[in-house]
Hints:
The structure is a homodimer.
Chain A: H1 8-26, E1 31-32, H2 34-41, H3 45-53, E2 65-66, H4 67-78, E3 84-89, H5 93-100, E4 109-116, E5 125-126, E6 129-133, H6 137-144, E7 148-151, H7 155-167, E8 172-175, E9 188-191, H8 194-202
Parallel strand pairs in A: 3-4, 3-7, 4-6, 7-8, 8-9
Antiparallel strand pairs in A: 1-2, 5-6
Helix pairs in contact in A: 1-4, 2-3
Amino acid sequence: MRSALIPDVIIGRLPLYLRALSQMGREGKEITSSQELGERLGISSAQIRKDLSQFGEFGKQGTGYNTQYLAEQLRRILKVDRVWDVALVGMGDLGRAVAHYGGFLDRGFRIVAIFDNDPAKIGKEVGGLPILGTHGIEGEIRRRGIRVAMLAVPAAAAQAAADELIRAGVQAILCYAPTTVLVPEGVQVRYIDPVVGMQHMTHYLP
Amino acid sequence: MRSALIPDVIIGRLPLYLRALSQMGREGKEITSSQELGERLGISSAQIRKDLSQFGEFGKQGTGYNTQYLAEQLRRILKVDRVWDVALVGMGDLGRAVAHYGGFLDRGFRIVAIFDNDPAKIGKEVGGLPILGTHGIEGEIRRRGIRVAMLAVPAAAAQAAADELIRAGVQAILCYAPTTVLVPEGVQVRYIDPVVGMQHMTHYLP
C-alpha cells in the first residue's frame, strides 16, 4: 500500500465511500459503479475512480465494483477491519449522547472507558459503562492499551485532557471541544465543531 | 469582497481563525501575529497570511493584527456579524445535547425551533423551547424565515427531513445523521460524522 504518498484529502473521502458501500450492502446491492456511488455522495464519478485507483484495481471495466469486496478493501486501508477500543472523556450532555450512540461498533470503534472529573458523576453508569474519575485516565488507558480517544470536555479543559491522553499512549483524538489542541508529531487530532461548519455555510448565503 | 473567487478550503479555515481570535479577545489580548495565531491553530503563519490577504489588508507589517478588528472583519466575511435563527430537527440524545449547548449564540447562531416526530416528545420543553411535531416543520420555518437548520435524525430519515427543510426555505443544513443527503444547487450541506473523522485517523495509526 502506497498510502504515505496518497494525499490526505483522498484518505478523508474513503470513510464516505465506505459508509455508502455499507449502506448499499444493507440494501442487498451486490454491484455498484462510480456513477452510482457518486450520485449518492454528491461526488463526481471521475473523482471516485481517481481516488480508488490510488490503491489498486478494485473494479473491472464495464462490470463495476463488488460492494462487499470494495468495502472490505476500504476497511483494510482505513484499518477498521478490526475494532478499536476508544476512551471518551467528558460526560456532559454531549458526552452522554456520544456514549449512548449505537453506531460506532459496526464501523470499527467501541467505547470501553468513560471519564469525568465531577465527583457526582463518578461511579454512575452511562451506556453500560461506569464513569471513572479523570485521575484514573492515565493508568486505565495504559493498562488497556487504548490508542483512540474522544474528547467531550469544555474548551478550557481540552488541552490538559489531551496532554494526559497522549502521555498515556493515545495516538488519535477526536475533539468535540470548540478549540484547537496542540499535539506532538505522530499524534492525530480531528475536530467536531458544529459552529465551524455553520459559519462556513453562512459565508455563502445570499 | 471577491469571495466568489476564493477557494472554499480558505473559507473553511476562517471560522478557526475567528474562534482563536475570539479566545484571544476573552484573554484581553489586543494584538496578535500570524505566528501566534499559527501556533495556536497548528497552521503555518505563511498560510494564515496568505489566507487573510485574499480579503484585503488586515494587519500592518511589523505591528501584527488587532484581534478585535480582525475578528470583526472575519465575522462580516462569514456573515456572522448577525445572529442566524436555526431550526433543529431530531430530539434524540444528540439533538438534546445540541439544544442544550450554550456555545452557539455568541458565534452567530440561535436555535429558535426544535422538532421531533415522536408524539411522546412533542410539547415537552428542551432548552426552553417546546418540541414541535415534524408535521409543522414547513409552516414554522416559512413563517419565521429560518434559513439554517441542524439535522439530528436517524440516517434513514435524513433525506426526507432535508427535503422538507429545503422546501420551507432552508439554505444551509448541518447534518449529524451518518449519511449523505442530496440537495439542490444553491443549498449548502455540511456533515458531522464522528466515525468519518476517526476512520480518517486510524488509517495513519501504525
